[in-house]
Amino acid sequence: MRLPFFVYGTLRPGECNHDLFLRGRTVAEEAARLAGAVLYEGPGYPYAVEEDEGVVYGELVTAAPDAYDRLLAGLDRLEGYAPGDPANLYERVARPVTCGDGRVVRAWVYVAAPAVAADLRANGKPIEGGAWTAS
After folding, report:
1. Residues linked to residue 47 through DSSP beta bridges, in sequence order
2. Can you give the residue ranges of every domain in the chain?
3. What is the C-alpha separation between 92 and 75, in angstroms, rounded?
């Protein structure tokens, strides 16, 4: 599936990984939100944890068609994701996100892997308001 990406941390515009991974590889970036998740502080980057209540704010990023495969592989590496690997920090899942104009779009989202999510629920610090910035 060639889905757009929902980004909510270091890949957001103005953050450290945006230019490294996304600049020149996208055809659209727009404000969006992910319902059913809570944002938690991580070690210099956030984690979205799937929960019944909560909203995470970020951007919906549509990759340029000729850059899609390289971008997907690069983002998987950045997020420490490999399909089926029990050591993953994140899992890449397809979820509906809502754009600023009300459209609902299915997108790839990197959410906390099960063990990480359980630890964050028990010991983590939620980010009030569901929006993260490094500064």
Report:
1. 40
2. 5-129
3. 10
φ/ψ of 120, rounded to 5, equals: -65, -40
Alpha-helix runs per DSSP H in the chain? 68-78, 114-123
Q: Three-state SS for 19?
A: helix
* Largest Cα span, the chain: 42
Please state, in angstroms and rounded to a whole number, the distance separating the CA atoms of residues 15 and 64.
Answer: 20
Q: For 10-39, what is each residue's pLDDT tens digit?
A: 999 999 999 999 999 999 999 999 999 999
Query: How many CA atoms within 13 Å lie on the side-chain side of 66?
Result: 1
The one-digit pLDDT tens for each residue of the chain (135 residues) are 899 999 999 999 999 999 999 999 999 999 999 999 999 998 889 999 999 999 999 999 999 999 999 999 999 999 999 999 999 999 999 999 999 999 999 999 999 999 999 999 999 999 999 999 865
Distance CA 134, CA 58 (A): 13
5-129 adopts what CATH topology?
Hypothetical upf0131 protein ytfp (3.10.490)
